[in-house]
């Protein structure tokens, strides 16, 4: 197991290095002058020269990359030209909010998705299966930003039950925090529930046809034990594979949801940074998102190896 973890960690580090290179090069080679894009055409020559030097644009690309990478490894992503403060301070304010929504949606969607998937598989061909499968297929096809606009129109604009924007921590105002969390959390969790339901149903239908399940039934075990103790345990192996992907997609999907509901998280920060050509923030957002996604995938692979020993033996 130790060798397997070391191998996967090495692969993660290599992926992060490749992503950092591509990110830096893509941002560096964007057409146009980044200083004019950030400060406008009417900027003075002194201000232009100052920002140009701060961004180290007077150095070769390879030197700028290694300088940026060295600073990033020490937690220094430079100065934000849009917020006029350290990039790491901007990220520190926004990352907890995005993680809160992503982890909360993940925690809600996985148990519900597994439950609905088991119900759909056990009652295959019956009305319960038809309803669950139909809703899961429809929900999986709907874009998150469309769902966000729809629920905002219904519950905020038409009914007036919930606020349409903003975010408040529960420790500051519990009631307002809950109201502002319901719609964004619903939009993020809905896709996860649909995907997990479909995958669990498919895995369960394959597992319940196996000989060991029929043997367990023939021994007189209760239906609940056969389903949850024998069938579900093995059916979850393929489901675990998509857990990391789902959490990663929730982090990516938060960009649309946060923009619609005006939530000050990583997603909305990324959009603002791109629009204002805030290069340090754009590079930091991509690198931090890639790091979080790689860590999630690493933990998923380790969990997969724990559940299925054949993975680490191979």
Descriptive report:
The chain is mainly α and 314 residues long. Helix content is 79%, strand content 1%. It has helices spanning 2-28, 34-39, 45-54, 61-73, 87-122, 127-141, 144-158, 174-207, 211-218, 223-261, 266-275, 279-307, 309-313, and strands at residues 79-80, 85-86. Strands 1-2 form a two-stranded antiparallel ribbon. Helix 8 (174-207) crosses helix 10. It is globular. The chain starts with a helix and ends with a helix.
Q: What brief labels describe this structure?
A:
314 residues; 13 helices; two-stranded antiparallel ribbon; 2 strands; globular
TL;DR?
This protein is an all-alpha fold and 314 residues long.
Task: Please give the alpha-carbon distance between the first and last residues.
Answer: 11 Å
Number of strands: 2
Number of helices: 13
How are the strands ordered across the major sheet?
1-2
Structural class, by secondary structure, is mainly alpha
